[in-house]
Amino acid sequence: AQSVAQPEDQVNVAEGNPLTVKCTYSVSGNPYLFWYVQYPNRGLQFLLKYITGDNLVKGSYGFEAEFNKSQTSFHLKKPSALVSDSALYFCAVNRDSNYQLIWGAGTKLIIKP
Amino acid sequence: DTEVTQTPKHLVMGMTNKKSLKCEQHMGHRAMYWYKQKAKKPPELMFVYSYEKLSINESVPSRFSPECPNSSLLNLHLHALQPEDSALYLCASSQGGGGPSRTEAFFGQGTRLTVV
Question: Does the pLDDT of residue B97 top 60, yes or no?
Fold first, then answer.
């Protein structure tokens, strides 16, 4: 069965420090991986995706993610956190010919000044 | 224009009311979705329209009735809802109505629905 795990309910980081939000997945076949962010009382915004090619994917707002096939991970990273990065982050996975994203439970990211 | 517009932003309705949620996109996307999201939880897929035809219904109760009048519009008709239906209802769209698995979805800001 396909699944996505975000092992941390909450991640706390000081402003200016690097941040990592973890995601691991289990899917048969080639995975298509996505990160979305949700600010309070807002819809979800697409950050970045991995489909194929370079394992390091760069996205919006200075975020990047590294696809690691052997560890079945797709961790979200940013070199220097901003207070405005505080939000709820969701990892999701899909595979070919399938509308149905499988979502992680979400990780609340708190950046402290 | 990369926006998905949802109206209304907030809705309070009684259990005997009939109301509709509306969603509009002008990105030429051929797949449109309705999701339900409870607080601090991931979104749950309700319906998918592909090329204006309903392609997925995730066993949603009949008190929720989707409609896709044209390729830019998506409605969700609500009738006889229960208090547990209170949630954020999100509309989304993506390219490739024939299988958008590789393409990202664009979400609206949602309708915050409260059933009293």
Answer: no
